[in-house]
Amino acid sequence: MTVIRVALFVVAVLAALPSSAQSRGAPAAPAPQADAPSMPVSAAPTGTTGLFGLRPVEPLPVVTLEQAFGLAARRSTDLRVAAAQLRAAEANITKAWAVVLPQLSLGANYTFNTPEQTAKFGSEEQLQQQALLFRSLGDLTAQSAALTPDPRQRQAALERAAQLGAAADQIESQEITEFVIQPAHVVDGALTFAMPLFSGRALPLLQNAYGAVALTRLGTQQARAAVLWGVARAYLQAVAAKSFVAIADEQVASATRHHALAEQRAAQGMMTALAVERALLDLKKAEQQAIQARGAQRMAKAALAGLIGRLDDFEVVAPPPVVALEEGAAIDALLARAWQKRLDLRMQKETVALAERTRTETWTRLLPSVQLVAQGRYTTNTAGLVGEPLTGAVIVQASLPIFDGGMTMGAIEEATAKLDAELLRVRQLEETIERELRGTLDDVALKKESVATTAAVAALAHKQADNASALFAQGVATDTDVRDARFAHFAADVDAARARLDLQTARLGLAYALGELAGLVKVEDIAPDVLAPDDVAAARAALDRVPSAAGAR
After folding, report:
1. Is 407 helix (H, G, I), strand (E, B) or coil?
2. Whole-angstrom Cα distance, residue 359 to residue 150?
3. Which secondary-structure segment (H or E) carries 394?
4. Alpha carbon distance, N-terminus to C-terminus of the chain
5. What would the pLDDT profile of 379-434 be if each residue is shown by its tens digit?
6. Nearest partner of 68 among 232, 242, 312, judged by Cα
7. DSSP alpha helices (H): ranges in 57-111?
8. By three-state DSSP, how is residue 545 classified?
9. Any bridge partners for residue 117, and if so which?
10. pTM for this one?
11. What is the largest CA-CA distance in the chain?
12. Is 501 helix (H, G, I), strand (E, B) or coil?
């Protein structure tokens, strides 16, 4: 009995584990730049007791392993977060193109000046002096004309004298003009067009933006594989829990038959009352274990439901046997397949490329940059020296960094160190994958031996239990013989069921280690559900039922 109880407890514990604990951890891709995405991490609340239940429904719908994979692909929070991060990475491409695309901006400002600044050209005294000078020149010209004997020259001199006098009169009649240098209210506007002509950083930054999208997409696929691995394990645990329930129910039926037979033998005087009490005790223990088995089954299904986003109860069925990938495959061939299929290797390759481009980008900071700037300006301040409200300018700007305090050289050294770290991780991954494959292959071989051994033991235990029951009915075997044989029978069944589950899980683990789990389970490429307006409304409605922090005591 102890073996069955321990087995049921182990199933319940394993089934309650979250997928992140069941799945093999993949190293998070390092971010070479500020906009690089991070790997998705589940932030789902864990509750308070760690116990989860499902809504009862009748009849129970059957959820196959393939259907569970599809539900997880659509409803997994990790995958939905990963899809959102992929969209964010794709949006960063637009930001990266801003380095090479032209920019157009419109600006305006209003200025209030106090006091208003004005100026005058000349003064009244200056005008009088100028008029006096012109009049004096006119008088001198008239006097010289009177002394000229030639009539034509005299007439010309008199005309000049008259013109000088008229100019003097005009100067005296002029008024001093006052104009505004700095008006009280000024509105300025500018339309600026800037076009980069050369930037050494543009190409590596653009390549890293597209590389970040590729890296995030690989990370999404890796998260998908991890979710499938967790769902597969949880589903097999639920199937095992269901089989343990069937074994426990069979144990109850056998204990019931044995108790009835013991009462019959006691009525015939062939068995003591103590033996009947022992048979009744065995029956109650079997019923208690059946209750525990059903509790473990509910926990296993609830753990699976958390991975596939389901609240209603359901039934599981034994999936078809997992393909034996280890059959006829040498370790070198499996290693070659892993190098072609493992997503973490592809992610690491892209990460190294990102690190190399980041180092190149740091070196390009030493190159000059050139841009073309065209600007059109508008101002309301046209009363002073500026007479045109609209002006424009075309500028070619060039800059060459000479010394920035060591920032660029520090960035170069940092990028080089990060590249070295990523290359070391490649070596680490190479060693880890080989150890994983060798260990998983050994585990599969041991699980296959365990299945054969436990099946043989179960067959012998069944035969022994049948013989003990038959001999007991004939009065040859004792009650102790029957109890021992029945215990060995059910313990062997539990061991055989566990061994079959372990072999299925080990083969799935081999597919996951090879990077072929998604292809092995044959799940369609189902996109995760996006956050719908109904989800937002439901979340808001749920929060409305929660007391605010201000009202907490």
Report:
1. helix
2. 96
3. strand 390-399
4. 50
5. 888 766 666 888 899 999 999 999 888 999 999 999 999 999 999 999 999 999 99
6. 232
7. 65-75, 77-97
8. coil
9. 182
10. 0.68
11. 183
12. helix
